[in-house]
Amino acid sequence: MTPEPVTVAVTDHAVERYRQRVSGGSGSLDVRTQIAARVARAWAAGRSEPGEKGSVHVADLERRDVVYVCRHDRPRGDLIVVTLWESGEDAAVPRRFTDELRRLDRRAGLRPGRPSG
Predict the structure, then answer these.
(1) 2 within some domain
(2) Looking at the domain assignment, is residue 88 inside a domain?
(3) Residue 96 vs residue 40, higher pLDDT
């Protein structure tokens, strides 16, 4: 079954994670466009699966260790890339570190988008 067409949007958070993990801090100005294109190709190829809390995980076609975490707004036909991670222990920043930072933020009472000081 072919997935329905979507328009891909990318959050600033996902751009930063991509720069850290995929582009190697290359400073490329079109990172957001690169992410959108990669996610759109992977989505069209059927490389998506349900994630946690209503998210959709889309696996990159070129770097199979990269997983994009998205929100799918079906009525509007939008796929919003919220963040990404690399799977495996050879990852630049393994997911277990990302998960641990999230746990520490929760313990400290921090939430995304809320100032820490």
Answers:
(1) no
(2) yes
(3) 40
Distance CA 104, CA 110 (A): 9
pLDDT tens-digit profile of 42-80? Answer: 999 999 999 988 899 999 999 888 999 999 999 999 999
The answer to whether residue 43 sits within a structural domain is yes
Range of the domain at 34: 7-107
Q: What span, in angstroms and rounded, lies between the C-alpha atoms of 18 and 84?
A: 7
For the chain, the average pLDDT equals 80
Nearest-CA neighbor of 39 among 60, 12, 64, 66?
60
CATH of the domain at 80: 3.30.2310.20
The pLDDT, as a whole number, for residue 22 is 77
Distance, in Å, from the CA atom of 16 to the CA atom of 32, rounded to the nearest integer, reads 10
